[in-house]
Amino acid sequence: MSENSFSLIVALPGEEPVAHELQGDAITFGRSPENQIQVLVAEVSVRHGQLVREGDGYRIVDPGSTNGTRVNGKPVGPQGVVLNPMDRLLLGTLVPAYFVPSSMLVANAPAQLIATIEASAPRAQTKTAPVTGAAVAATPGVRPGVPLAAPVPVASGGPATVKLDQVRASGPGVRPAPAPAAPRLPVMPVAGAPAAPGVSAPGAPVAPAPARPAAGVIPVKPVSGSSTVPIKRVAPSAPQIPLPKKPGE
User: Fold this and answer.
1) How many Å is the Cα radius of gyration of the chain?
2) Single pTM value for the model
3) Which of 70, 135, 164, 200 could form a disulfide with 90 if both were Cys (CB 3.0 to 4.6 A apart)?
């Protein structure tokens, strides 16, 4: 095994990875059995692509497969991409493959090499698109030049308290706060005007309302030096009809 020989490890879904040693100036791969490396997966085209010898390594070429080929996440076109040791390939959208020196397969199993490559592969980073002024203007309820309201803090373990000025009155399902009632001013009397019935003149003493006797109690005028003793009213009895006298009575 020469120092410049390479192998392509193909990991079919649900199967053990298989290492294919690359020999020759052009190695084709695809779903057809006519390829040097056959990949029996529907996502892979019949003649998906080929590996072309270039110097001491290989260049992978995809002339136009249906689902494409990627190297380290970047698409491969007809012009091809030069492969480096430990590169990660993706045939179609489901079949990963790994370009490794054949000498590393002597002391390492294909699964171990795959785990090493996957652990060192860079993770995809999510990019955030900048917000343009046109996007802000097109957002309903947002006016250009007006700062957005800060989020209302919510205390953990209890209900949130929202200030009325942080809630838009035009929002759906939100009732505006009622306007505060104007304070009632005292009515100043006009000199010479008669007082309204039931209303005492300003400054006049208010006479206490006479006490009403309780039901069933006859008030008794107090005797000098004594207190009022309530007397219970006797319930009226039925009228008595005199009986006729017997003879001799």
Assistant:
1) 51
2) 0.50
3) 70
Residues 133/144, Cβ–Cβ less than 8 Å? yes
As a whole number of angstroms, the distance between CA 169 and CA 176 comes to: 5
Query: φ and ψ at 50, to 5 degrees?
Result: -150, 160
Q: Report the Cα–Cα distance between both ends of the chain, in Å, rounded.
A: 160
H or E element at residue 114? helix 110-120
- Asked if 15 and 3 count as a contact pair (C-beta separation under 8 A), the reply is no
Supply 202's token pair. Answer: 């300003």
Amino acid at 83: L
The arithmetic mean of pLDDT across residues 205-233, rounded, is 57
Which residues, in sequence order, are bridge partners of residue 87? 99
Residue partners of 27: CB distance under 8 A and separation at least 6: 8, 36, 37, 50, 51, 58
| Contact indicator for 233, 218 with CB cutoff of 8 Å | yes
Beta bridge partners of 100: 7
pLDDT reported for residue 100: 96
Closest CA to 51 of 83, 77, 88, 74: 83
The first and second tokens of residue 113, run together, are 């090499």
Burial 95-106, CB ≥16 within 10 A → b, else e: bbbbbbbbebbe
For 56-113, write each residue's pLDDT tens digit: 999 999 999 999 999 999 999 999 999 999 999 999 999 999 999 999 999 899 999 9
Phi, psi of 26 (to 5 degrees): -145, 120
How open is the CA angle 112-31-24, to the nearest 5 degrees? 70
